Amino acid sequence: MNSIRQRLDELQSQMSGPDFWKNKERAQKVVQEYNDLKAQYEALKNRPEFFKGEYDDKNAILSITSGAGGTEAQDWASMLLRMYIRFAQKRGFLVEILDQNHGTEAGIKSATILIKGSFAFGWFKSENGVHRLVRLSPFDADHARHTSFVLVEVIPEFSAPEIELKPEDLKIETFRSSGPGGQYVQKTESAVRITHLPTKITVSCQSERSQLQNKETALMILKSKLFQLKLKEKEKEIKKVRGEVYDASWGNQIRSYVLHPYKMVKDHRTGYETSDTEAILN
C-alpha cells in the first residue's frame, strides 16, 4: 500500500502543475492511472480483516460438477448453483453464467459462473471441495433416502495472465448450446469447447450468441486455470490458492447438507453446524 500511496502523491503533484494540460494525451493517461490507483488503494484500505490472501480481491470463477448420485446429484448441483448465485447477488456481486451442461432428466451435470466484484474470490474460495446432500429423493418411486455429491472448484480470475498459448497445444471444438432435456437453444454452433492438450484441461463457454465471444471467454478461463497451475507447482501454492482437489464421492466432503431424517448443515473443516438449512440454501 505504501508504494501505491507514494505513486498517487507523485501523480497528484504532476496534475497540480501549471503546464499539466499542455499535452492532453499524456495528461489523460496520468489522470486515468491516478483514478485506477486510487480505486485500488481504497479497496485495499477497506479490505476486511479476514481477506489476507494475495488474490482475495479478484473476481472468482466458480465451477460445479455433479459426482456420485446420478440424477439426484445433478439436481443437487443445480441447487448449489442457485445457492451461490443468490448469495453473490445478495452481496452485490454481478454473476455471469459462462457454461451450463443440463442433465437429461433434471438438474445440471456441470456449470461455470463468473462472479464479479471486490473480493469475490475472498468470499468464495472456501467453497472449494466436495458438498454432500442427504435427503428423500423426489426421483425415487419408493421415496428412499439418497446421498449425493457435488464438486465445487473456485479460482481467481486473472485479467491478463502471462500465459502463452500455442495453437498446436489447443483442440478447439464448436457445438450447439443445449437447454434442459438436451434440447438445442441455438441453431448455429456458437458454443465453444477448448482442450489444452499438454495438461488435458478442458473449458467451455456457451453464454453468448457469438462463437467469437464464447471463444474469448473460454480462453480467459483456460489462461486463468493454467496460470493457477503455474502458481501451484509447489504444494504450498496448491493449498494457498486453490486447496486440495478431491473426487466428488464419500469421505472427501468439506460440508454436509442433511434434509432427512433431520435438518442440518455441517462444515467438516470448522465443525460449525446449523439446523437452519433453508437459510443456507436460499
UniProtKB/TrEMBL annotation:
Keywords: Methylation, Protein biosynthesis. One of its GO terms (cellular component) is cytoplasm. One of its GO terms (molecular function) is translation release factor activity, codon specific. It comes from the Bacteria. Residues 10-127 form the Peptide chain release factor domain. Belongs to the prokaryotic/mitochondrial release factor family. NCBIfam families: prfB (TIGR00020). This is Peptide chain release factor 2. It comes from candidate division CPR3 bacterium.
